[in-house]
Amino acid sequence: MKIQSKDKQFFRNPNIQPNFFQDVYDVVKLIPRGRVSTYGAIAKYLGTGKSARMVGWALNVCHSLKEVPAHRVVNRSGILTGKVHFSPPELMEKMLIKEGIKVKADTILNFEKLFWDPGKELGM
Length: 124
Description:
By secondary structure, this protein is an alpha+beta fold. It has one domain: Orthogonal Bundle (Arc Repressor Mutant, subunit A), CATH 1.10.10. Helices cover about 35% and strands about 10% of the residues. The strands form 3 sheets. A two-stranded antiparallel sheet has the order 1-2. The N and C termini lie far apart (about 30 Å).
């Protein structure tokens, strides 16, 4: 199914619930300040473990929703792969640093310690 937004179009996986993006936003809002999660961990928590890319798409189109801290979601290695969707791209790193998270070469330092796993923190 093709979905249109103001400036993008993409294909929605028909196996994913129509409210998937909102579910992603609801989980991301729970990531504590100073912690980070991953696209894959959020997808797994939502029961769609192979949909990490869809989590990324959801976060890519939510920048007008200031209550969704999309900057707290990184890839499984702690790399700021989503930074290209911030304007300017350095904004993601600046927002993380403001929360006390150290970043070097676009990678979260002490990622394992700062990782917030919704499956463990919220229960599955």
